[in-house]
Amino acid sequence: xxxxxxxxxxxxxxxxxxxxxxxxxxxxxxxxxxxxxxxxxxxxxxxxxxxxxxxxxxxxxxxxxxxxxxxxxxxxxxxxxxxxxxxxxxxxxxxxxxxxxxxxxxxxxxxxxxxxxxxxxxxxxxxxxxxxxxxxxxxxxxxxxxxxxxxxxxxxxxxxxxxxxxxxxxxxxxxxxxxxxxxxxxxxxxxxxxxxxxxxxxxxxxxxxxxxxxxxxxxxxxxxxxxxxxxxxxxxxxxxxxxxxxxxxxxxxxxxxxxxxxxxxxxxxxxxxxxxxxxxxxxxxxxxxxxxxxxxxxxxxxxxxxxxxxxxxxxxxxxxxxxxxxxxxxxxxxxxxxxxxxxxxxxxxxxxxxxxxxxxxxxxxxxxxxxxxxxxxxxxxxxxxxxxxxxxxxxxxxxxxxxxxxxxxxxxxxxxxxxxxxxxxxxxxxxxxxxxxxxxxxxxxxxxxxxxxxxxxxxxxxxxxxxxxxxxxxxxxxxxxxxxxxxxxxxxxxxxxxxxxxxxxxxxxxxxxxxxxxxxxxxxxxxxxxxxxxxxxxxxxxxxxxxxxxxxxxxxxxxxxxxxxxxxxxxxxxxxxxxxxxxxxxxxxxxxxxxxxxxxxxxxxxxxxxxx
Length: 612
Prior knowledge:
This protein is an alpha+beta fold. 56% of the residues lie in helices and 9% in strands. The chain has helices spanning 45-62, 66-69, 74-87, 105-115, 120-132, 135-140, 143-153, 270-288, 290-306, 318-354, 359-368, 371-396, 398-401, 406-414, 424-440, 446-459, 472-496, 504-534, 540-568, 571-584, 593-607, and strands at residues 160-163, 179-182, 188-199, 206-213, 220-225, 232-234, 248-259, 263-264, 308-309, 312-313. Mean pLDDT is 93; it is low at 1-24.
């Protein structure tokens, strides 16, 4: 089930990456060690207690009422949001000065993870409120604005909503037609326009509204309190495929008076606010897919253990084990990637604070510096949860298709994740586009990386690994994946130049390789770190999942790499690059993949749940 404001039912044009880009995305050109990353096994005692508190709340208050969410019980969603606010979880990322808990970024990701698994309706309400409904004021508001609004949003006294998308402005978010006209006396703006797909609209107290002043190039953000007597009206609740109890309405503004002091940041700064809010939204959406996938996997295992066919539990059939292994493996890789990125952001925030930035400024820049990873996580995790739910329905057969079973609603709720926070197609193209921009701006030595990779491929050199060490073959192949991606991306940039963004299918294929590299490396580093910590014997199934994930990743990279080469190159160059592709993806030591998947599934079957 998943997440984020339905206001973000569209993607964003590649210009969304035109802002400042600071941090070098070093994972694609450099190697990290296991000690460099954070894993779920690294949670502090305080974080584990927080996780347990959130799980206890969801299991007590939300899961038993799951059927009510499918009956458009908007009042239940609002009631639960109030309870979440009373527990402090709405303010987990808000500084203590404004009524929040002021927790670190990893902790905010953890809360988002475990509060989002039971139903997409509550997950959307939570994500829309804590992210794009509150964060723009926290990060861009004046001190007066923060004291007036954030203090109440952090506790759940007020709820937030975000009004960006319009009927004619989806992917091209900066083309909105909503107008803000300054009054003759200069004391307020009159806002007029139509917004659609607005999450939390039915019970929100405060709206973040984007409008254009005169003929400005960029839109401007405003804080607009709800006031039905101030030219604000609402459409009916939308009928949606999923997230049935998430309030989603159109909002109409007719000369709505907004004091000039309610402008957020400066004139024309709205597009920047929107894009940076989405960076946070994307990484949070990624982690918000995880507990739903855990619950789906556990439910599928439990059903498979109980369902008897041909005098045998269906969990013992190889066809079922194949699906269970895939569900668990992708979840393990997703966990590894999300918490790796969360810790990278947290370290970056700490670095900026040490340099003298305020915490709000540091968080803004810290997340912005990892905008590429945010997009990769959003895409990978939202597609993995959809695939897991689909496998879950198939394992349960007719029962899975029944609306009386939770698997069916999980599948429907999961579908929105691929649309929220910019469509997956837009995020795919953004990830490669932002990488190339870093290279062009000199923030990443991409040219040297391309030359080095090309030389390595030409001379057929490999990064040395200890052949007898854990996951040695997987680490060798990961290095090859990176070399191939860098060479193919460099060739595409050289061939198409500034017109590369017109070749969307090339960008989509390259981004699929990009995603697999990040998720594969994250799983490898997590497994190696835990082998060092707890011993190889304790991680045998995790090793199996890592190997199985890389095996499937290699197939995706082979397919997408072949597409790029054949489309982009001709004759001798095409033949040469295809030979390189096949050679670099060749396994020197083959694992028994069916055996690995059986090993993974057997562990799930034994534990009767997702247990990693």
